Amino acid sequence: MSLPSNLNPDEASPPWLNKGDNSWQLTAATLVGLQSVPGLVILYGSIVKKKWAVNSAFMALYAFAAVLVCWVGWGYRMSFGDKFIHFLGMPNVSLDAQYLIEQAFLGYLPNATMIYFQFVFAAITLILVAGALLGRMNFLAWMLFVPLWLTFSYTITAYSIWCPEGWLSKKGIIDYSGGYVIHLSSGVAGFTAAYWVGPRTTKDKERFPPNNILLMLAGAGLLWMGWTGFNGGDPYTVSTDASLAVLNTHVCTATSLLTWLMLDIIFFGKPSVIGATQGMITGLVCITPAAGVVQGWAAILMGMMSGSIPWYTMMVLHKKIGLLKQVDDTMAVFHTHAVAGSLGGILTGLFAVPKLNRLFYLVDNWQHYIGFFYGLHTGHTTAGFKQLGIQLLGIVFVVLLNIFTTSVICLLIRLIIPLRLAEDELQTGDDAIHGEEAYALWGDGEKYESKLNSIYEEFPPPSKGGEVQMNQMA
């Protein structure tokens, strides 16, 4: 079969296009998308009290759709486009056909693939923020929050750290796949927004059982397996580094889950399913900034620390620090994302292997991209100290930026519409907000709940045999 004379096959498959890379990138992006829809939709809808199942799931679904429209409208160019100001790209539409089929700024891919890949990362960041606000935020306020936060917070972090022209990128920060851009920012933003929105009702804070733990595990499983694309797609090529990143991701996650599980058994006497899920999440988050630039033994050490340090902050420090007790962070995103993300960024600065960094960043420069321990080992001590300092600088930048921008956005929205649902809506839940309920067979499940509370119903200092009340969950 011959082609029509007016068609040029080189336009559909130009010389710079690598079909294998492009196929993997589209697959990886879809895996990340599945983490959100249906992964976090299912996880949120099942881990909350029954009366909040529909609203919680729908907050995630709405964010996914809203981010995509904003992303192609202006968000992608602000994050990865031509420089506008020191830490932000020029706002512009990303829907022109000619632009979409041109080569992306990294990799042998068209812009359309890169836009899609970066979109699913932006979307999951907003959905993670939602985790801190479940069970009381006004849905109409959430509808305003999503585009505003994407525009004035996420784009700044993404441009600064991931765009080649970004100021932290030029300094040589290592954030392989979003420990800073996604997890630290969502953890801090979620915690900050939770402060402004206010807590759940007293009854919900005291008793907030999951309505379906089996479905929660299904959502968690999608989240875990989807991380293959999350970290495996960031070299933008089908490379040995991508394979290493995937294996390190799963090794760290499994180690973290088992560490958290053992701590629960030692201090509470019960192997908690919710606790294991939290350990899984902290492992995934911790390895993300380091996935393709550390060795396997480092991934195991990172898993041990991500399964223990966030466990300690959640189960011990949470009851001792006034601000943590004051803010009602429903899904504990501060611990599972902000703490674990910061931990991952610091450990990346310690364990990053120079050779692996050169494979990922395609540079041959001993002044950047060298873990502190490798700097000591190779005699590049100053460079190792510098890398660790840059990693810490990135944490300070993301924390301060998100406290400021999230606070301003919440205060602006509050001038237009209440951030918090009305009291009658808080008492009723889904039916009052959406006119729909997740389950129509019986009431809120109180008669069907186990007499033994989960050990994750609030976070007092660990004590053997002590009953723990659930306040925040994974």
From TrEMBL:
Keyword Transport part of the UniProt annotation: yes
GO MF annotation list: ammonium channel activity
Subcellular location: Cell membrane
InterPro entries xref list: Ammonium/urea_transptr, Ammonium_transpt, Ammonium_transpt_CS, NH4_transpt_AmtB-like_dom, RhesusRHD
Transmembrane segments: 24-45, 52-74, 115-134, 139-160, 180-198, 210-227, 281-312, 332-352, 388-413
Keyword vocabulary terms for this entry: Ammonia transport, Membrane, Transmembrane, Transmembrane helix, Transport
Topological type in the membrane: Multi-pass membrane protein
Main localisation: membrane
Transmembrane helix among keywords: yes
GO cellular component: plasma membrane
Start and end residues of each Ammonium transporter AmtB-like domain: 24-439
Family label: Belongs to the ammonia transporter channel (TC 1.A.11.2) family.
Protein name stated in the entry: Ammonium transporter
Organism: Gossypium davidsonii (Davidson's cotton)
Lineage, uppermost ranks: Eukaryota, Viridiplantae, Streptophyta, Embryophyta, Tracheophyta
